[in-house]
Structure formats: structure tokens, C-alpha cells
Amino acid sequence: MNKQHEYKTTIRWTGNLGKGTIDYRSYERSHTINSGNKPLIQASSDPAFRGDKDKYNPEELFLSSLSSCHMLWYLHFCAISGVVVKSYKDTPSGIMEETKNGGGRFTKVVLNPVIEVEEESMKEEAMDLHHKANEYCFIANSCNFKIDHSPVVNLAVP
Length: 158
Prior knowledge:
The chain is α/β, with parallel strands linked by helices. It has helices spanning 58-81, 123-136; strands spanning 10-13, 31-34, 41-43, 85-89, 93-98, 104-111, 114-117, 147-149, 152-155.
């Protein structure tokens, strides 16, 4: 039997300007995301869809989830393989295409991690472990498109 893990969040719409959704322009897309006693995430839709540019949108959170999941698996595999990572930063990017019916989907995501390792001898394995991390990433395995990677591994400066 496979282990199962259940996750719950609370999404609360905060964009009712007093008239509800009487028409397309009568409400804000603002909402909060919460789980347990963690800090609220202020969110909205992308500005292209009448959202607030100063709040996270679902597309940004999706990219962040992919990047975060990959990073956590990557760090795990580095730790058990003897690759000492000193820093990790990713700037993921993605392409979402709108469909004719007004919906859309992501067609491409590229993770761009820049990693610093402790020793020169660790660089090759540090590059290779990105493939393994991708195989294990829960979020990437839930997508219906390939997640590309463009990693850079540098030697950490003492």
C-alpha cells in the first residue's frame, strides 16, 4: 500500500466590493491563502486578468512550487551523496498559453538554479543530481508537460 499525505489550505475571496459578482468589473480578484497557523499569503489574479500586481498570483505560486520542490529534493540528494551545497538560488520562468475558450495551461517551465558547492570535485555530481531531483519532485510529477532545467554549478568562494 502506498503512503498517502493529505494537504489542506483555506482560500478566502476578499474582493467583494459590496455588489458581489453582479458583473465582470464589479469585484476584485483578491484573496488570501492560509494553512494552519502560518502567515496569510495575499494573492490575486495576474494583472492581465484584472488582478493586483502587488500580490502573488496562482501562476507565480505554481512556478514557486515547482522550484521549491525541485530544490528540496536536490538538496536531499546532494546531502546523501556527499555534495556540499553552500548556496542555491533559482529564477524559474514559465509560459502559459491562453486557449480559445478563455482557459489556458502552462506549456513550458524552466528552472534556472545557480548552485555553489564546497569543492571543485563536487561540480559534476552536483550537475547530475538535478536529473534525479526532477524524477522525484512531487510537483513536477503532477504536471502534464516536461520541466526543463538550466542549472549552473560554481565553486563557492571562501
